Amino acid sequence: MILPVITYPNKQLKIRSKEVVNFDELLHRFLDDMYETMITSNGIGLAAIQVANPIRALILCIPDDEGNQTQENLLEIMNPVIHAPQGNVLYQEGCLSVPGFYEDVERYEKLTLHYQNRHGEACMLEADELLAIAIQHEIDHLEGKLFIEKLTYNRRKKFEKEYKKALKEKK
Ligand code: QAP
Ligand code: CO
Question: Which of 8, 26, 44, 138 is 20 to 30 A from residue 97's alpha carbon, by CA?
Fold first, then answer.
């Protein structure tokens, strides 16, 4: 089932999501719906709060070298914690909740992630490149933060102007 994606400035995006405690059939169905929603929307990452569910769950599917997002590369991440972040990189980010806007954001270059999978099993992965960036972007959603909040004052102003204009033109 494709779920509606909440977009800025919806206040729900500011909620701090709660730990996942039930790794049950309901969670599994929700994760499946998140995947369908993300792929249909041409996304590479989606946090549960973006589809109005304030739980610490996110999914990522980084395209391979051919640009294909195979389900084998799908990561389902619950209750993530970042360890040992290293270095910094700039990357032009976007967000399904801020459609049509892209801007450079600084992130850690590499990190280790501790999390639970859909069965509640403890997992760990080492990430760099786009995966490391996407993990940080999605974990920010769990804290109620959007990438536009990391922009400088002037770039944020540019965003507000462009976004409002785009919203008006949509109506
Ligand atoms: C988060 O973002 C991300 O504006 C995932 O019109 C972004 O999937 C991680 C999207 C950058 C790492 C680097 C955005 C689709 C998708 C749009 C997305 C749009 C259609 C964003
Ligand atoms: Co996002």
Answer: 26
